[in-house]
Amino acid sequence: MSRIENVKRVAIVGGGASGLVALKALLEQGVFDEVVLFERREDVGGVWFFDPKVASEEARRYAQDASTRYPVVLDDGSAPKYPSPAYEGMIGNIAHELISISGRPFDKPLSTGPVQEGEREESDLFPSLDSTIAYLRAFADAYSLHNHIKLDTEVVSTRFVDGKWKVMTKNLLNGEETSSTYDAVVYAAGLWDRRHLPAIAGIDSLPKERLLHARFYRSPTIFAGKRILILGNGNSANDIASHAAPVALEPVYRSIRHPSYYSYVPDAKIHDVKPVRQFSLDPASGKVIAELGDDTVIRDIDLVVAATGYRYDVPSLRVPSRDGSAQDEPITPPDGHRMLGLYRHIFHARFPTLAFIGYSIAWSPFANSEAQASVVARAWAGRIDVPSVEEMIKDEEDSVKEVGDHNLFHVLALYKKREYGYGNELREWALQGGVEGTVGVHWDERRIWLLQNVVRLKTLQLQRERGLIT
């Protein structure tokens, strides 16, 4: 075990929940000369940030040219826009109590009257998009975090040079680039940019107007009067299918490999079908033909929606190579199935002044990020020990042996300790540096019960919303 010393200047990449809790935790230590957070959007919120104006313009341009994607440049002279994966009517899959950051309970929504046509009522347990972004903004305001945040600023590159981190940023308002040096860097930008497409024959040949990744879904209006095939049965696939069903041609097809592990209520307008074996185009109509694994053929598909997840990608970051060559290397393998070289999904084993917060997959993501941030802040403040490089490398090797080297490597539920054991372990580690400041939530019996029952509770809520139960 050893102590990390002489960390005075810290940069954080990403202004979502993970970046905000990291900023708060680092500032609480009171020993750093500078802590600055860079966010490329015009406000905090990360994956929960949603701008209806940008979404509308994004949809308009997509209708004109399906190859138009990223970023969205408006005609008002504002900075380029980087829409998050958020969409209209999005309801969280995590209960308020689980998503709350310690010391800042998530207020339950108050009923303001009957739900208007086209709107969705927010449940007592699960927060809406609007209430979640409001919660994160209030969190930033409560701790005066905006004094340390640079919005409309993109991190272009991060490199390890002469024992420090050289960070190049770009002001998206005027295009000006700035290079600064930091003793330590937190990446908290998540994994919501690199879309994953399944290895289905013909999928790469589908024209862009026939294939939409869930990353770019914003509103069900895109489905009106169309025949839709959705790939996947995770949270996004289930949600998008329920949005499409009232407006698309019946039925909406959902191609699945197995029953959903997530909250889902059967709908007569949604038909589950076998996995797609091959895609092709009808030469006459230009529409999609899907051949399924059971030899069924679905024709005249207007739009295929790939709700098939994401892969890890940190394009701005390179670290010195493991073999000592002059060529820096990325932090992810070419296929992006996981992050490489991390201890407990947080510290880079060879360069522990580089940390990643919020990249592990958790049912309680804000609390998970807070626990990780509490350890990082105390370690860089020199208040707790960290394992040696050799110990951290071995820990990652042991993790690969435990769960395998695949795209679920960072899913905490697959580990013996589970999410709650992991969280409590990080909390105990942080407490070795004192009780002052962020230490993360304690996973008690009630919190564990909520975690174990969150899918059932969300399913019950969906059934109530649709009048299936009272």
TrEMBL record:
In the record, what terms sit under GO molecular function?
A: flavin adenine dinucleotide binding; N,N-dimethylaniline monooxygenase activity; NADP binding
Source organism's superkingdom?
A: Eukaryota
Signal sequence, renumbered to the chain: none
- UniProt entry keywords in alphabetical sequence: FAD, Flavoprotein, NADP, Oxidoreductase
Q: Which SUPFAM superfamilies match?
A: FAD/NAD(P)-binding domain (SSF51905)
Is Flavoprotein among this UniProt entry's keywords? yes
In its keyword annotation, does this UniProt entry include NADP? Answer: yes
Q: What is this protein called?
A: FAD/NAD(P)-binding domain-containing protein
Organismal lineage: Eukaryota, Fungi, Dikarya, Basidiomycota, Agaricomycotina
